[in-house]
Automatic annotation (TrEMBL):
<dbReference type="InterPro" id="IPR036390">
    <property type="entry name" value="WH_DNA-bd_sf"/>
</dbReference>
<dbReference type="Pfam" id="PF00392">
    <property type="entry name" value="GntR"/>
</dbReference>
<keyword id="KW-0238">DNA-binding</keyword>
<feature type="domain" description="HTH gntR-type">
    <location>
        <begin position="9"/>
        <end position="76"/>
    </location>
</feature>
<dbReference type="InterPro" id="IPR000524">
    <property type="entry name" value="Tscrpt_reg_HTH_GntR"/>
</dbReference>
<dbReference type="Pfam" id="PF07729">
    <property type="entry name" value="FCD"/>
</dbReference>
<dbReference type="InterPro" id="IPR036388">
    <property type="entry name" value="WH-like_DNA-bd_sf"/>
</dbReference>
<dbReference type="GO" id="GO:0003700">
    <property type="term" value="F:DNA-binding transcription factor activity"/>
</dbReference>
<keyword id="KW-0805">Transcription regulation</keyword>
<keyword id="KW-0804">Transcription</keyword>
<dbReference type="InterPro" id="IPR008920">
    <property type="entry name" value="TF_FadR/GntR_C"/>
</dbReference>
<dbReference type="InterPro" id="IPR011711">
    <property type="entry name" value="GntR_C"/>
</dbReference>
<dbReference type="GO" id="GO:0003677">
    <property type="term" value="F:DNA binding"/>
</dbReference>
<protein>
    <submittedName>
        <fullName>DNA-binding GntR family transcriptional regulator</fullName>
    </submittedName>
</protein>
Length: 217
């Protein structure tokens, strides 16, 4: 019995990742009703692990459960963007404050070098994974040293929801501005100036928020 439970949990995890990727890439469009029976047939699994995966996606904000009607891919709108960033402003300030005293100098110097490489890669390719790498290098490092796994999970889920919007607008962002903003955060952290790092992070998030709103209109 334990083996059966374990295999179902593993399957649910796999379906969760697969369905989330379909939503992020817009293979399943925002607002669409999710046909669980059809998904089960297409994927060759039963309805149960698909429902479990969808409820997890609902808790992450990717799926909306409508009583007596079914499950729908969460809508994308300005209100959602506003609410996501309102939460990020508060949580990421907390993350910077908690992480700032603990991030090693060598890691921050690595990030600066990686930003130079990112700038060159972006100029050469404009591939979306370049942006993902840049965000992971800085934001991932901050969360790693903040020492709060729940905080990391909450903000990571919000950032993934932002990527759904970025995928929709095909990453029409000002990459030079993004790189410059990241660099200011890292330099403030190298100076061991937490307040300066918090302010640089706040400015970066506000600018990213405004760029996303402008592109999504």
């Amino acid at each position: 019995m334990a083996d059966k439970r374990l295999s179902r949990y593993v399957l649910t995890d796999e379906l969760y990742g697969l369905l989330k990727q379909k939503i992020l890439s817009h293979d399943i469009s925002a607002g669409n009703k999710i046909n669980i029976d059809q998904l089960a047939r297409d994927l060759g699994v039963s309805n149960i692990p698909i429902r479990e995966a969808l409820f997890r996606l609902a808790s992450d904000g990717f799926v909306k459960v409508v009583p007596f009607k079914g499950m729908y891919v969460a809508e994308m709108n300005m209100t959602d963007i506003d609410e996501i960033f309102e939460i990020r402003f508060a949580l990421e300030e907390l993350a910077v404050r908690k992480a700032a005293p603990h991030i090693p100098k060598f890691r921050l110097e690595q990030i600066l070098q990686e930003l130079d490489a990112v700038e060159q890669m972006w100029e050469a390719s404009h591939e979306e994974n370049v942006i993902s790498k840049m965000n992971h290098d800085l934001h991932g490092t901050i969360f790693a040293y903040a020492g709060n796994e729940n905080l990391k999970q909450m903000v990571t889920a919000l950032i993934e929801r932002v990527h759904r919007y970025l995928n929709l607008v095909h990453y029409k962002i000002d990459m030079n501005a993004e790189i410059a903003e990241h660099r200011r955060i890292v330099l403030a952290l190298l100076e061991k100036d937490t307040e300066k790092a918090v302010e640089a992070s706040r400015i970066h998030l506000h600018q990213a928020y405004q760029r996303l709103r402008d592109n999504f209109k």
